[in-house]
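re: that chain from earlier
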Amino acid sequence: MRAIYYPFDKSSETQHIVVTGDSAKHLQVVRVKLNEEILVLNGKGTKATTLVSSISKNQIELFVQRVVECDVFHSIGLAIASPKKDAFEDILKMAVELGVLNIYPLSSEFSQYEYCESERVQRILESALVQSNNSFIPTIHPQIKLENFLERLHSPLFFFNSRPLECGKVEKIIGEQVILIGPEGGFSPAEEACIVSKSNVFSIHLPTPILRAPTAVASSVGYLLSRL
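^ sequence. v structure.
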């Protein structure tokens, strides 16, 4: 079934969804037909199975057959000291596909990109949402300094380090768990010391060569899901 992102009202009494703008243009480009099934994702946990009921120049009307409220897959957040722009965009795609709910861009000594909200970022998120049929677009928080993030954080933090360090025992945790990934150059010794000094930090070393930031994100989320 073809899927699109469109921020419709999640009310179960919705009978029709009128799609306009870029989403309508996309459906017209791929030549959807009357009575074709379309899966509509609103990015806030709701999926609607619909049928195309009318097609016009500027809009497409969908008849709603079924509305489903979805549960989150897990409660993993991602804190990333921003790598280069192209790597950061790859991470955004992976984060959506992996079901990450919150993304925390960080500034560190070796971070290489200053995140700012943009239409390009939104398009990347929407495209990954449709590709993966995920029901939730992650929240990208404003970029802050690493030390400020550590001071404000109350959730358990899983620090995936390229060097082995002692690690606290990972217990079953309820609520958000946040993964911390460094930039391509890693964290400085002073930053690393600050990270591991926090009481709610679990330092985890994967027995691999040094990973690019996007690969580290995918590996770390997979590792954490297998453990928790």
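Helices lie at 21-29, 85-97, 119-132, 146-152, 189-196, 213-227.
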